[in-house]
TrEMBL record:
Cross-referenced InterPro entries: ClpP/crotonase-like_dom_sf (IPR029045), ECH/Chromodomain_protein (IPR051053), Enoyl-CoA_hydra/iso (IPR001753)
SUPFAM superfamilies hit by this protein: ClpP/crotonase
Main localization (coarse): other
Keywords from the UniProt entry: Isomerase, Peroxisome
Location(s) in or outside the cell: Peroxisome
GO molecular function: delta(3)-delta(2)-enoyl-CoA isomerase activity
Keyword Isomerase listed: yes
Protein name: Enoyl-CoA hydratase
């Protein structure tokens, strides 16, 4: 099972569960996560969604072996990718989303945090947006959401440099709301999730809608721009060379 789902005190917990692959997203996990987010959104007994990872990683991003195979056989397109379904589900989620970043977050393991309402991060976790090192464009409207969340220069560094950002720096930037010791991460995230979940669900939804509504046009415009650039760069010389190198080491 690539995604574990459990309920407690009106909090639905989703655990990315490909620990041997550092929870890298393949098409199966994208679809499972998209479906679980939509199901949580429509369930009247769910007030808050908590997302975390199994094992030592939050998510190592796209499964690059699957990506390379999709480029080779021509099956990897935005229209045929469940990635788009997951991003749409994140965009449309009307209930609070809390992310507990338990380990490395790479690529989508970082950019999905732009859709979180609260981010808790282990003191030993690290984040990276590796797009320039992979010869591709940003994803998941990160070119819009990250500047809104952490400021243009912090976002520019993360998106342009392909360098790691540790938990302390992520907190300073405003990407992580709280940094916890590893053993305290999930208890703290759950404690705060249950504080929110004790509130009126219609009120939670109304507050989140009011917060998110002004950003939806920017998300849509950024997504269109990123998708066009991604399609142009995918499979190009820089991307092909990077995938050949990375797939020799596994997903990232």
């Amino acid at each position: 099972m690539t995604l574990q789902i459990s309920d407690d005190n009106r909090v639905r917990t989703l655990v990315l569960n490909r620990p041997d692959a550092l929870n890298a997203f393949n098409q199966e996990l994208y679809l499972a996560t998209a479906t679980a987010l939509a199901d949580a959104d429509s369930d009247p007994d769910v007030a808050v969604v908590l997302l975390t990872g199994a094992g030592r990683a939050f998510s190592a991003g796209n499964d690059l072996k699957e990506m390379a195979a999709g480029i080779a056989d021509g099956s990897l397109t935005s229209a045929g990718s469940h990635f788009t379904k997951m991003i749409d589900a994140l965009t449309d989620l009307s209930k609070p989303l809390i992310c507990a970043v338990n380990g490395v977050g790479l690529g989508i393991g970082t950019t999905l945090l732009g859709y979180a309402d609260l981010v808790f991060m282990s003191a030993t976790a690290r984040l990276k947006c590796p797009f320039t090192s992979l010869g591709v464009a940003p994803e998941a409207a990160s070119s819009y959401l990250l500047p809104q969340l952490i400021g243009r220069q912090n976002a520019a560094w993360m998106l342009l440099s392909s360098e790691w950002v540790d938990a302390e720096e992520a907190h300073r930037m405003g990407l992580a709301w709280k940094v916890c010791e590893p053993d305290d991460l999930l208890p703290e995230a759950r404690r705060h999730a249950e504080i929110l979940a004790a509130q009126s669900i219609p009120s939670l939804v109304a507050v989140k809608k009011a917060i998110v509504a002004p950003f939806r046009p920017g998300i849509s415009a950024a997504t269109d721009c990123e998708n066009a650039a991604f399609a142009e760069l995918l499979g190009g010389a820089a991307n092909a060379a990077a995938l050949a190198e990375f797939t020799g080491r596994g997903s990232a």
